[in-house]
Amino acid sequence: MKIVVLLGGNTSEREVSLRTGAGVARALGTLGHDVALLDTGTGKFLKDADHALALGTGGPAPLHGGLPAQQGEQGLDIYVRSIPRSADLVFIALHGGPGENGTLQALLDLAGIPYTGSGVLASALAMDKVMSKRIFKAEGIPTPEWVERWAPEDPAAPWTPDLTAEEVARLGGYPLIVKPNEEGSSVGITVVESPAALRPAMDEARRYGRLVLVEAFIDGRELTVGVIDQRALPVVEIIPQEGWYDYEHKYTSGASRYEVPADLPPEMAEKLFALSLHACRALRTSGVARVDFRLGSDGVPHCLEVNTVPGLTELSLVPKAAAAAGMRYEDLIRAIVESAPVRAAR
To answer: What is the pTM of this model?
Structure first.
């Protein structure tokens, strides 16, 4: 097939996206597909996977062809129109922003171009952490208690997002988790240990969007379950060498260790599988997804979120889970491609 990999973008997760897209492009080439790479952050077609990696880890790599660089969602329609009409599929390797929140998916739907992963509704719901948590709660899927705070539209306007004593008590007291509503890769997240640290954490999260989420801290184990076409992969446990699983621990080799499959009683693993599939069905995901949990000391797994465009880098969790299930990286990419819809005859 002729497959266009969309990668890069201009979100806070650009570097991770470039690494994901490079790995995907290499695997697709190995599988015999005709591959093109389009960086939606610059509007340029990349020559190969090596150039994508160079953009994410060093100076600019040589580029050829391309379109005028665009900023934000308004430029995506230009990129979609630039996709060759002979392309059979778009492989979405964009993390965060319009590439993951349903905007790109809507444009591809309007253009009649098949793509990997979830559709518009699931992408929008999963990206919105508060809406996801409301659905989890309605569906009986345990999720940490939370409080929402909206910042003014004007970044310079006064903002007093303090919590009441009743809200802090409802969240179980300190520490608390403060995070942006629509970011991934732990960007903008702070573990708040005391009331004095709350306001700086809220201001940090506000940098990434108006809606800030304050969540109960679940003291326990960090677990995740990859899902491909409604099939759960082995549970992965993430164990940071120190601190918590922030951006640095996610994408720095050796900063965390992983147990795959996680050392869990069989009944707990089965419970996590069931909750993962339930969460994906509730949000209407398709293709590949990843469901993140905190397993509390009380033995209750709390669903944090569902990621509809999970990372596929050499350090990413879904490839680790797939390997534990006996799948090579190329097998994983093949499964993602095969889960995508087929383009109607032109």
So the answer is: 0.88
